[in-house]
Design a protein that fits this description.
411 residues; Alpha-Beta Plaits; alpha/beta; six-stranded mixed beta sheet; binds flavin-adenine dinucleotide
């Protein structure tokens, strides 16, 4: 291994969090072009286990970065959720609820944009260790050593950076598994009606999550991506047993789909961890900060792409200030992740997860089902439509109360 390569910023992981950080950095400070490196263990386009649902919040972030979504996509404008106490209509009068992409092409598009903006992307190299001192941080990879003023750990749920600098903690890791089914779009409601479906009935059987079915395009052909998320898979019993239980619940959620091959392992499926936000965690230490799944994302739904972009934006602001000599900028990043809009949203989702995924879940699903107007506000808040998720809590609660009591609409 030769001498270390020097950059201002090293980013571990070129997924949405790492690439969003890089893209916001060069957008804010074009002078950083050529001084940022992202290290990726795979090579784009690489497969990523993910349903690829981009909520409107993510679309706003892409717009802010000036990136056109130049990959095959399906726009969803209708939605429904089955709960242990009945059906919920998630549609918002024709508004796009989600844009479904495939992560191999989406992430490769982001990587291309970042490279064109002057970010060096080192692929097929894995971060192994991190050593920091008062002057710099050294990142040891399989093939090289990188030295920088600051390191962003954006290397996903199993983050090596997190383990090296913050220690390991497994209690906040959920799991989602998924499969793709080729379908005839003319006979599939998800395509005919541009609809996605969620099913939370598995909560009654001990799965802290839901099953989903999303329309998507793979290799030019219409498919359904179906899967199941569990925020606390360990509670399902013996090691490995959780996947069997999750598959059984997924098959039960969509009996009309040809999913029986999953149980026999005749159908290919993929499973992957999702680290969720826990307010007790810290996200900055010395010259190292965490972003995206490495930090922790939405505990309720396991949605993490919008978070990756929000973290990326905050990280880029903090890094800019740090490079300018503001030594408090790193601690301020940690505070922003806890107390800023994204931290507050994730705390509310953690609160919701504690109640919806609890022995009293039926009561909470019943309360959530009381007012259609309140549900609409909930959907818009979750999706970040019209920046509703950035509204101060007291105003949001007031709006919610007016919706429930007076039937006020959001529009
Ligand atoms: C089945 C499933 C379905 C999901 N569906 C959705 C959805 O519909 N919508 C949504 O918003 N979210 C969804 N998520 C969550 C979403 O996939 C993640 O939140 C998102 O990928 C987080 O982005 P990230 O950049 O933080 O991490 P990642 O996307 O995991 O990117 C991390 C990158 O770091 C690289 N890396 C890892 N270790 C190293 C290392 N040591 N050195 C160098 N590189 C490394 C990886 O190869 C990867 O490219 C889903 C997750 C799962 C498991």
């Amino acid at each position: 291994m030769g001498a270390s390569r020097k950059f201002d910023v090293v980013i571990a992981g070129a997924g949405p969090a790492g690439l969003a950080t890089a893209l916001f950095l060069v957008k804010n400070r074009p002078s950083l072009a050529g001084r940022i490196v992202a290290i990726e263990k795979s090579a784009h386009p690489r497969f990523k286990v993910c349903a690829g649902g981009l909520i409107p919040k993510t679309m706003l972030a892409l717009e802010e970065l000036g990136i056109a979504l130049d990959v095959p996509k399906v726009e969803v404008i209708r939605g429904e959720a089955a709960t242990p106490v009945g059906e919920v209509n998630l549609s918002r009068g024709g508004d796009v609820l989600a844009t479904v992409i495939r992560r191999d092409l989406f992430d490769a598009m982001l990587a291309r944009e970042a490279a064109e903006a002057g970010v060096e992307i080192v692929q097929s190299d894995r971060v192994l260790d991190v050593v920091q001192n008062a002057e710099s941080v050294r990142v040891i990879t399989e093939r090289s050593i990188f030295e920088a003023q600051i390191l962003v750990g954006a290397d996903g749920s199993g983050s090596r950076v997190r383990r090296a600098v913050f220690g390991a903690r497994k209690e906040t890791i959920g799991r989602a598994l998924m499969t793709d089914i080729a379908v005839d779009p003319a006979r599939t409601p998800e395509f005919v009606e541009q609809r996605y479906r969620f099913d939370f009935r598995c909560v009654s059987h001990g799965v802290n999550g839901y099953s989903w079915s999303f329309p998507c395009i793979i290799g030019g052909a219409p498919h359904l991506n179906v899967g199941i998320y569990d925020q606390r898979p360990r509670e399902l019993g013996e090691e490995g047993g959780e996947q069997k239980r999750m598959i059984a619940e997924l098959v039960a959620a969509f009996p009309e789909l040809p999913l029986d091959g999953l149980t026999r392992r005749a159908t290919r499926w993929h499973s992957f961890p999702i680290r969720w936000f826990d307010a007790r965690d810290s996200y900055a230490r010395g010259r190292v900060i965490l972003a995206g799944d490495a930090a922790g994302v939405d505990p309720l739904m396991g949605e993490g792409i919008s978070c990756a972009f929000e973290h990326g934006k905050l990280a880029a602001n903090a890094i800019g200030k740090f490079i300018d000599g503001d030594s408090g900028a790193i601690r301020a990043y940690d505070r922003a992740l806890h107390e800023g809009a994204v931290g507050k949203k994730l705390s509310k989702l953690a609160f919701a997860a504690r109640h919806f995924y609890s022995p009293h879940s039926r009561l909470f699903f019943r309360i959530a089902g009381v007012s259609r107007r309140a549900q609409e506000i909930g959907v818009d808040w979750y999706n970040g439509a019209r920046h509703l998720d950035e509204m101060p809590t007291h105003r949001l609660v007031a709006r919610w109360a007016r919706a429930v009591l007076l039937g006020d609409s959001l529009r």
